[in-house]
């Protein structure tokens, strides 16, 4: 609690903070405040200023802030691409971000001209065998984490999942078919300058979106993901097989 209060004292008008200023503003004694500062330095959240008399945001805090801005950028830029994708394919289009342990749906656009809509709820965490999760595992920087996620699947399912992830790494696309409901989805990565930032997917049924053979919706999805990545400066991350679809 105190640590978050100290970090909350930093703002654009106050990029540097002293122990004395923090203690006075939070009503703490300097010894206690200095102890909190020392802990935050050890965690990489604060660093000493160049002259050593004050403190500035540390490398980890800057990295987290940059990551947060990147996530906000992709969410802000995605809507027109999702709208166009839903209209062109006559399917639902969804944007997912990586959450604590898997992709979480952040935005959804539905095709309002279609009387029957197959969609997904915003805030829903997608399972490890979803198309979007396969794409994330194919391109995430921490491949050991991807391996651990795949290891959570049962034997036969694990082999199939590993094959799908390897295919997604080559093609940039992954699909899934939920047999019980006949719902299908195809996912593609969205990159920024540093790597995968999100995934875009189209959602339908086995009739409206066949997943065993690529069709026009796959190309439309690839174009939408590529154009969004281009706006984010990450189009160079796509594999060659993906760009051949464009």
User: Ends: how far apart?
Assistant: 50 Å
- Using only C-alpha atoms, the radius of gyration works out to 22 Å
The amount of beta strand, in percent, is 15-25%
Q: How helix-rich are the residues, as a percent range?
A: 40-55%
Report the total helices. Answer: 9
Mean pLDDT, as a whole number?
A: 90
Largest sheet: 5 strands, antiparallel
The largest sheet has its strands arranged as 4-3-7-6-5
Number of strands: 7
Q: List unreliable stretches of 5+ residues.
A: none
The ordered string of helix (H) and strand (E) elements is HHHEEHEEHHHEEEHH
Q: Which secondary-structure class do the elements indicate?
A: alpha+beta
The best one-word shape is elongated
Write up this protein:
By secondary structure, this protein is of the alpha+beta class. 46% of the residues lie in helices and 19% in strands. The protein contains 9 helices and 7 strands, in the order αααββαββαααβββαα. The protein has helices at 2-7, 19-26, 30-42, 59-89, 131-139, 143-151, 155-171, 216-232, 240-243; strands spanning 46-48, 55-57, 92-98, 103-109, 174-178, 183-192, 195-205. β6 and β7 form a beta hairpin. The longest helix has 31 residues, at 59-89. The termini are far apart. The model has no long low-confidence stretch (mean pLDDT 90).
